[in-house]
């Protein structure tokens, strides 16, 4: 029986991917970087620092450091989330179902730690989470399993008794490497992609979630 469910954040709880894309384009373009859609796909699953370093390698800029630019992106994303952030379909009902059945709830995200309370407060779901983790505090982000192992430890649950809910193949790889059960909720255009075949379960939306995935 699954004792804890650990959620990814961006793209799983909130459709923040367009906000990241907009913020990165604004910030990097202001530094003279040509932010092409093709290269943006490569940086989409990176941590913020990794993405800033990636774009610097593509087109080095003068002035602010990689760390300062990464922080500028995060600050802009925070503003966009606060003004536009909405929970994805099924998030509130799934969290309530888990809490009503005394299943522990955690968060494991590659996003910066400072965005976690902003997202949870904007969506009014912070009261559901017992433990929240960011890859900021790990040596490597997803697909490395470290953040999921840390999240399981924080919830005091064996990884094999955790279900990870993810929207990306990178996150699925991280959770599987941590020996967790996985549930993929891919973006609409990626639902049939074979990269999600590794996941134990797959749903089009969390509105279809039920307790059978915990048995």
Structural notes for this entry:
This protein has helices spanning 17-30, 37-43, 48-58, 66-84, 91-100, 115-123, 146-155, 169-177; strands spanning 4-7, 104-109, 131-134, 162-166, 181-184, 201-202. Helix content is 41%, strand content 12%. The relative contact order is 0.17. By secondary structure, it is an alpha/beta fold. It is built from 8 helices and 6 strands, in the order E-H-H-H-H-H-E-H-E-H-E-H-E-E. It starts with a strand and ends in a 13-residue tail after the last strand. The mean pLDDT is 95.
Highlighted features:
single chain, 215 residues, 8 helices, alpha/beta, 41% helix, 12% strand, 6-stranded parallel β-sheet
Q: What would a concise description of this structure say?
A:
This protein is α/β, with parallel strands linked by helices.
Number of helices, where a helix is a run of at least 4 consecutive DSSP H or I residues: 8
* Strand-pairing-aware structural class: alpha/beta
Strand content: 5-15%
Label the overall shape.
Answer: globular
What is the share of helical residues? 40-55%
Write the element-wise H/E pattern from the N-terminal end onward: EHHHHHEHEHEHEE
Low-pLDDT runs: none
Largest sheet: 6 strands, parallel
Q: Give the end-to-end Cα distance, rounded to a whole number of Å.
A: 5 Å
């Amino acid at each position: 029986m699954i004792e804890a469910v650990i959620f990814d954040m961006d793209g799983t709880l909130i459709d923040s991917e367009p906000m990241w894309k907009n913020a990165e384009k604004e910030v990097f373009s202001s530094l003279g970087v040509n932010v092409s859609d093709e290269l943006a796909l490569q940086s989409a699953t990176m941590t913020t620092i990794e993405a800033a370093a990636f774009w610097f390698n593509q087109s080095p800029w003068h002035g602010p450091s990689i760390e300062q630019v990464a922080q500028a992106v995060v600050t802009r994303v925070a503003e966009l989330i606060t003004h536009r952030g909405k929970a994805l379909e099924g998030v509130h009902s799934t969290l309530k179902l888990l809490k009503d059945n005394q299943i522990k709830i955690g968060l494991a995200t590659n996003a910066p730690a400072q965005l976690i309370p902003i997202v949870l407060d904007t969506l009014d779901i912070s009261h559901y989470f017992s433990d929240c983790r960011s890859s900021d505090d790990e040596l490597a982000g997803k697909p490395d399993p470290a953040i999921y192992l840390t999240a399981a430890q924080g919830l005091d649950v064996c990884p094999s008794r955790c279900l990870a809910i993810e929207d990306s193949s990178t996150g699925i790889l991280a959770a599987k490497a941590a020996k967790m059960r996985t549930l993929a909720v891919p973006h609409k255009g990626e639902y049939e992609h074979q990269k999600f075949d590794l996941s134990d379960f797959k749903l089009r939306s969390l509105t279809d979630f039920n307790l059978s995935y915990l048995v």
